[in-house]
Amino acid sequence: MQPVNLFHLASRQSQWLAVRQSAIAGNIANVNTPGYGTAEIEPFEKVLDQRRVALAATREGHFAAGVTEAAFQVRNEDGGNSVLPSENTVVLENELMKAGDVRRSFELNTAIVKAFHRMMMLSVKG
After folding, report:
1. 101: alpha, beta or left? (left if phi > 0; alpha if psi -120 to 50)
2. Segments in the chain forming alpha helices (H)
3. What residue spans define the domains of the chain?
4. Which of 1, 58, 63, 95 is the most exposed, fewest CB within 10 Å of its CB?
5. The whole model's pTM is what?
6. 82 CA to centre of own chain
7. 25-54 residue pLDDT tens
8. Burial grade of 12 (CB within 10 A; 0-12, 13-18, 19 or more)
9. Chain-centre distance of CA 96, in angstroms?
10. Residue 103, CB half-sphere, CA atoms under 13 Å: how many?
11. Between the CA atoms of 38, 22, 4 and 110, what dihedral angle is there, to the nearest 10 degrees?
């Protein structure tokens, strides 16, 4: 079992939240675009499941066998099955709820990192 690096995990989640917020903003911007399909990003849990263990080269003579982390997958839903007047799949209320969820997740992520940082500083200072 590998140790959990909280700062790396929080950083990765922040990146994921930024990509999700961009997808939501694009959906809101195209709410009246005919035929536009809602863009949705894969869940963060799925990103964590795909995490691979990579070998690290600690000396110059070691082989470079690094495994790069994949980019987050954003998929577009087909706008063909829409019953909306704009003939697309964007529901503004759903996108606004997702945006609120992203905001709360950013706040929680920041609070956890601050608390962990404070705890580390207290343990170092003694």
Report:
1. alpha
2. 6-29, 44-49, 92-125
3. 6-125
4. 1
5. 0.71
6. 27
7. 988 998 888 888 888 888 888 877 765 444
8. middle
9. 17
10. 7
11. -130
